[in-house]
Amino acid sequence: MAWLQLRVNATSATAESVGDAMSECGALSVTFLDSKDTPIFEPLPGETRLWGETDVMGLWQASADMDVALNYLQNQFGQLTYKLEALEDKDWERAWMDNFKPMKFGHRLWVCPSWCPVPDPAAVNVMLDPGLAFGTGTHPTTALCLTWLDGLDLVGKTVIDYGCGSGILAVAALKLGAARVIGIDIDPQAIQASQANAERNQVADRLALHLAGEAELPVADVLVANILAGPLQELAPTISDLVKTGGQLALSGLLMEQQDSVKAAYQDQFENLQVSEQDQWMRIDGIKK
């Protein structure tokens, strides 16, 4: 079966109403997308968080009369900026799998999905499939952190992965020689995903996982935090206290225009702060004073 997809540009004030109207005129599903690719914070329970500029995407069967749907929407909201297109029916699972290939970071670290052969059995291979939690290596912020970890001597070290998501950074650190890793996240699904990926990679015995604020944490030799610029600034005192003197820190999840404010939040506690960039996403790393 083929499908018709209608994408309407809306705002945070109108997006939910546009989505409701799409459902009323026959949309089988409605999705909200950030039209400017701006990260947002995790919503509170029962809260719908929408972006400043939001695209609302509705999906209809190919036989639907889209003139009727468009007239209904424009009667409700006036002239709309929209795009209507036909979607080819295909094996979406197969297409998705075909687009996720093994990826190399630094000199020795690979992230490999389970359905692909390992390119280099002698390398450090992290086996990980996309899932419910953020972090597969495809996003520049994750790639920046993986490359940084690959360049460290982690043998015997204690590492904290603050905002562990899928556990990709925690598992990579353990496979790169860390003695133990503590993973922290605010999302219970992230804790579950990290545990499952650690078990798949046979490193779960050296990984401790906690919801944020629910455990007293030790100071670490290395801390990596791949979250967002706002939380990185708000958590600067907490994160700084978790790194031992001479320990190493990497912060990611921030855009180019956010680097100065994040650096300012850490510069009193850390020296040699360096900035690395990939596709306009940044990583800041330094040494605890």
From TrEMBL:
Annotated residues for binding of S-adenosyl-L-methionine: T142, G163, D185, N226
Subcellular location(s) per record: Cytoplasm
Enzyme Commission number(s) of this protein: 2.1.1.-
Record's GO cellular component terms: ribosome
UniProt xrefs under CDD domains: AdoMet_MTases (cd02440)
Swiss-Prot/TrEMBL keywords: Cytoplasm, Methyltransferase, Ribonucleoprotein, Ribosomal protein, S-adenosyl-L-methionine, Transferase
Annotated Pfam families: PrmA (PF06325)
Main location: cytoplasm
GO molecular function: methyltransferase activity
GO biological process assignments: methylation
Highest rank taxon of the organism: Bacteria
Reaction catalyzed: L-lysyl-[protein] + 3 S-adenosyl-L-methionine = N(6),N(6),N(6)-trimethyl-L-lysyl-[protein] + 3 S-adenosyl-L-homocysteine + 3 H(+)
Function: Methylates ribosomal protein L11.
Homology family: Belongs to the methyltransferase superfamily. PrmA family.
The protein, known as: Ribosomal protein L11 methyltransferase
Protein species of origin: Neiella holothuriorum
Gene name as annotated: prmA
